[in-house]
Amino acid sequence: MKKLLFLLIMAGLVLTFSSCKRSEIDDPDWDGPAGFYVLLKGSANPAMQLIDGKEHTTEIYVKVTDSSHKPLANKTIHFQQLGSAFLDDKVNWGKFANGLCTIDRVTNANGEAWATFYWPLKYHQYMMYIHAQMVVNGSAYPDGNIPQDYIALAMYHP
Hints:
Blueprint: H1 2-17, E1 38-45, E2 48-50, E3 57-66, E4 76-82, E5 95-96, E6 102-106, E7 112-118, E8 127-134, E9 148-156
Parallel strand pairs: 2-9
Antiparallel strand pairs: 1-3, 3-7, 4-6, 4-8, 5-7, 8-9
């Protein structure tokens, strides 16, 4: 009986002390099956502009973080203009600081990237969008898993 009691106590101690000692859980890769790892949020200031034939600018801002809200530095963000919130509705109404309808920017140490957008000189419609997406493996092709955001811009004319 003493042997059995001793063996049960030893087995209990072994099971108690051999349990998982992992104190920290690593995040999965951004494209892993466990879900989204990278968050990308964008905004525009100002997000509404009078289209009067004069040149107006707005600052497009994007912040990229991991799932723990830690900023991700040195990530390339691709900005492009869309006439609607559909990827096949690319437009060339305004321009970015490089004079083109698209631009790439790299996030700083705080996970932030900015792009100056020059509004269209001519009124086209009430809304347009700036599509910001992170470049992954050299591509900005949105397959549903690439971190992205649609930033709405409202146009009005007198």
